[in-house]
């Protein structure tokens, strides 16, 4: 009795044979024109631009002319390969069945519609002023504080942490310890000992709400506390503070103009997309449940 060749027993061969059979049985949408791949100079230049994600006709026109015959052949073969595989994927509706492909197509269409809407978009001086008026708070300079603190580690001292902190505060006050001399006192803190010109919101991730707020309430040049943080207790000496202040448009006009232009582009892009969606009739099935107002 003859045995099968060893290569026919290889699982990889079985996988390839099964894949070939499945591919042959898949429904395909083909016509005569879909089997012709026309390749011209403009096609290859466009292909080069797409791969580089840069769209400068003159630059790539010159780049194409600078290619050697061998490089041009490689570009030609690559284009034909990509186009053939793309058409094969479309023929078996892979663009509809694969959610990743669908997502990529949606992203491309989104960008295309936005590009169409943004062609030649500019911003006027009046629009800049109106945008600044509506978003003035976004450009205000927040209050800042500069201070030094001494840390008492809650994990190290346990239940006695508050008492240790209170004794340290008394020592700092009685000795009128200068900020630079306090750097070696207390326990090791995982962040900074000195904070310079910090806003309250920027302090919270490291120091917690209570201590961050204290830096903007306590008197200047005095040791105060103890204030609690997620890590322990702190004695605080505030060196200086700067009050919040509004910025005049003239000081930041270029920045506001960029922001206003971007906001206008976003708005026009969304309008273009909504216009494209409005061309479709949407039939909502009765089993969707209640549809309320969007929450975003």
Task: Look up the CATH topology of the largest domain.
Answer: Chitinase A, domain 3
The secondary-structure class comes to: alpha+beta
Q: Sketch the topology as an H/E string, one letter per element.
A: HHHHHHHHEHHEHEEH
Give me the count of strands.
4
The percent range for strand residues is 5-15%
CATH architecture grouping of the largest domain = Roll
Number of domains: 3
Keywords: Isomerase, Rotamase, Signal
Enzyme class: isomerase
GO molecular function, one term: peptidyl-prolyl cis-trans isomerase activity
Organism: Alteraurantiacibacter buctensis
Q: Which descriptors would you attach to this protein?
A:
296 residues; alpha+beta; Chitinase A, domain 3; 3 domains; 12 helices; 4 strands; signal; PPIase_dom_sf; isomerase; EC 5.2.1.8; PPIase_PpiC
Write up this protein.
Residues 142-240 form the PpiC domain. The chain has helices spanning 11-25, 41-52, 57-65, 69-91, 94-97, 99-118, 125-134, 136-139, 154-157, 161-174, 200-214, 253-278; strands at 144-153, 194-198, 223-229, 232-242. The protein has 296 residues and is α+β, with helices and mostly antiparallel strands. The chain folds into three domains: 38-92; 98-140 and 247-270, no CATH class; 141-242, Chitinase A, domain 3 (Roll). The protein has a four-stranded antiparallel sheet. Helix 6 (99-118) crosses helix 12. It is elongated, with a radius of gyration of 34 Å.
Outline of the structure:
This protein has 296 residues and is an alpha+beta fold. The protein has twelve helices and four strands, in the order H-H-H-H-H-H-H-H-E-H-H-E-H-E-E-H. Strands 2-1-4-3 form a four-stranded antiparallel sheet.
């Amino acid at each position: 009795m003859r045995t099968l060749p060893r290569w026919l027993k290889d699982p990889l061969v079985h996988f390839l044979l099964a894949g070939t059979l499945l591919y042959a049985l898949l429904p395909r949408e083909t016509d005569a024109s879909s089997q012709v791949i026309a390749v011209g100079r403009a096609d290859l230049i466009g292909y080069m631009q797409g791969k580089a994600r840069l769209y400068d006709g003159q630059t790539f026109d010159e780049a194409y002319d600078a290619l050697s015959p061998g490089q041009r052949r490689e570009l030609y073969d690559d284009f034909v390969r990509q186009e053939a595989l793309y058409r094969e994927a479309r023929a078996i509706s892979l663009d509809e069945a694969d959610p990743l492909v669908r997502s990529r197509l949606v992203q491309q269409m989104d960008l295309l519609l936005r590009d169409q809407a943004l062609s030649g978009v500019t911003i006027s001086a009046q629009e800049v002023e109106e945008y600044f008026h509506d978003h003035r708070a976004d450009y205000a300079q927040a209050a800042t504080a500069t201070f030094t603190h001494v840390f008492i580690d809650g994990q190290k001292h346990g239940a006695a942490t508050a008492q240790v902190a209170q004794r340290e505060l008394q020592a700092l006050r009685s000795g009128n310890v200068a900020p630079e001399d306090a750097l070696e006192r207390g326990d090791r803190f995982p962040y900074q000992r000195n904070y310079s010109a910090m806003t309250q919101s920027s302090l919270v991730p490291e120091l917690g709400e209570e201590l961050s707020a204290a830096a903007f309430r306590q008197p200047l040049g005095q040791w105060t506390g103890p204030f609690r943080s997620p890590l322990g207790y702190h004695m605080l000496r505030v060196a200086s503070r700067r009050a919040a202040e509004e910025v005049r448009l003239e000081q930041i006009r270029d920045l506001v103009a960029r922001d206003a232009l971007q906001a206008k582009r976003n708005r026009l892009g969304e309008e273009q997309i909504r216009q494209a969606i409005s061309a479709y009739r949407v039939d909502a099935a009765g089993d969707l449940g209640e549809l309320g107002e969007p929450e975003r």
